[in-house]
Amino acid sequence: MPDLLTELSERARELTSEDRARLAEELLASLEGDLEPMVDEAWDAELRKRIAEIDQGAVKLVPADEVFARVRRSLS
Question: What are phi and psi of 65, to 5 degrees?
């Protein structure tokens, strides 16, 4: 007899794509509380990395007005 996870997976594949999407959304939403500390930790690590890159001169900062001008040109 297949384990519960295998059985659920097989049964889920029998659903319409719309129902599978809804199920996936509900399952992901149920993880949000569990994942929040990991997500916060990952963002903190990313921010520390980016700040270090700026402090070390490893990246070039681009002024916002220049970025917006580039975007406007690319959309024209």
Answer: -65, -35
Alpha helices per DSSP H over 1-76: 4-13, 17-56, 64-75
Q: Can you tell me the distance from the alpha carbon of 25 to that of 57, in angstroms, rounded to the nearest whole number? A: 41
How far apart CA 25 and CA 3 sit, in angstroms, is: 23
For residue 65 the two structure tokens come to 């007005």
Helix (H, G, I), strand (E, B) or coil at 16: coil
Smallest Cα–Cα separation from 20: which of 11, 31, 29, 33? Answer: 11
Domain ranges of the chain: 4-75
What pLDDT is stored for residue 34 in this prediction?
77
Full-prediction pTM beyond 0.70? no
